[in-house]
Amino acid sequence: MAKDYYGILGVSREATDDEIKRAYRKLARQYHPDVNPDPAAAEKFKEINAAYEVLSDDQKRQIVDLGGDPLAPGGGGAPGPGGAGTFVGFQDIMDAFFGTAAGGGSRGPRPRTRPGADAILRLELDLVETAFGVEAPITVDTAVLCTQCSGAGTAPGTHLATCEVCQGRGEVQSVQRTFLGQVVSSRPCANCQGHGTTIPTPCPTCAGDGRIRTRRSLTVKIPAGVEDGMRIRLAQQGEVGPGGGTAGDLYVEIHERPHDVYSRKGDDLHCRVTLPMTAAALGTRMTIKTLDGEENIEVKPGTQPASTLRIRTKGVPHLRGQGRGDLFVHLDVKTPTKLTPDQERMLRDFAKTRGEDVAELSKQGGFFSRMRDAFNGH
Q1: Distance in Å from the first CA to the final CA of the chain
Q2: Crossing angle, helix 58-65 and helix 39-55, to 10 degrees?
Q3: Taking the model in full, what pTM does it have?
Q4: DSSP per position, 138-195
Q5: Domains, the chain, ordered by start
Q6: Which of 114, 202, 215, 252 could form a disulfide with 232 if both were Cys (CB 3.0 to 4.6 A apart)?
């Protein structure tokens, strides 16, 4: 007498595949030996597995609907090596607990054509080039499409062949006997590396990879205002993928060479100018070089050391938007270190006219001596 596989799972004879799977998962979680220590649960679990094995297979389910038992000897099907109702896929068991194919499931053949990787290139530029932009020639060494096989990887006049080991599935299965019955596991086919096809006669140019390495010359447009460390993306100029897959992107990383006059902070430029003490006191006009050419600036009389002059819009153009940064001129006032006797006399006379007491350091009882006496109460 045929078993009532529908009744074992508790579904109707009109149940859909999804309804059968949900019923199996629910019962498997309830009666699995690892979660249910009842000795009768193990037998119940075997019955549930057998019912799911039959009802999830269209041919076996048809036999049941016609009144037969596909797992019984002579009933339209043969029992597995472990006895009737002992076979169930590892994927189905894990589906019952996690709802996913924890065993990996059937992945199918792996495509030979895959996207390529991105590439990066370092480009050194001068300050003027990063400030105002430039079209720079670059040389890149990347994988490109094989011109002989156009990415197919096969020699001219030949084609891919279906793998004789996996029959095009890209994976092979193995069966192991466990306390759960027979467990099926899948792994990529070693003969075709999971592709499902082999290359009987590889392309002599690319050895079957569909791409070759070559050196190319390109021109990259550097926009005005780029900074050190920024990257410029050239779409699909990177590595061509295996099998002639879509090329990745090429990133050009900007490295700005140090300038001998200017230092850069964002879009502002900074420089230092040494100014004689007399020029700082009397004021002067001076000419400095900017990125655009020469610029006349005015130093007001009485300029103090460490003063800064700001020249607007003489810095670096803004990368995004209008306008430019500023140029900051930092003034270092230089005090003379060696004076002739006449120069020293004139400075002393000048100090007297201003009421400034300038002691002669070479004489005993000079400036520091008077400071010491003052602290000592003399």
Answers
A1: 130
A2: 100
A3: 0.62
A4: EEEEEEEE-TTTTTS-BPTT---EE-TTTTTSSEEEEEEEETTEEEEEEEE-TTTTTS
A5: 5-98 (1.10.287.110), 110-158+202-257 (2.60.260.20), 161-198 (no CATH), 263-334 (2.60.260.20), 341-376 (no CATH)
A6: 252
- Answer for the pair 328, 263: CB distance below 8 angstroms, yes or no: no
Distance CA 145, CA 247 (A): 9
Which residue in 283, 262, 280, 273 sits closest to 327, CA to CA? 262
β-bridge pairing 250-256 and 119-125: parallel
The backbone torsions φ and ψ at residue 35, rounded to the nearest 5 degrees and listed phi first, read: -115, -15
Residues 18-36: what's their mean pLDDT? 86
Supply φ then ψ for residue 97, to 5 degrees.
-95, -35
Interval 271-311: pLDDT, tens: 999 999 999 999 999 999 999 999 999 999 999 999 999 99
Whether the CA torsion 341, 347, 351, 352 is positive or negative: it is positive
Task: Tell which phi-psi region holds residue 365, choosing left (phi > 0), alpha (psi between -120 and 50) or beta.
Answer: left
CB 44 within 8 A of CB 24: no
Contacts of 258 (CB under 8 A, 6+ apart): none
Angle at 265 between CA 262 and CA 268, to 5 degrees: 75
Identify the band that residue 97 occupies on the pLDDT scale cut at 50, 70 and 90. very low
Residue 194 tokens, joined = 């999971």
The answer to whether 153 touches 210, Cβ cutoff 8 Å, is yes
Of the candidates 277, 291, 292, 261, the one whose C-alpha atom is nearest the C-alpha of residue 339 is 277
The C-alpha atoms of residue 105 and residue 92 are separated, in whole angstroms, by 9
* Calpha distance 351→138 (Å, rounded): 63
Structure tokens at 336: 């003379």
66 three-state secondary structure: coil
CA dihedral 148, 153, 157, 161 (to 10 degrees): 180
CB 336 within 8 A of CB 342: no
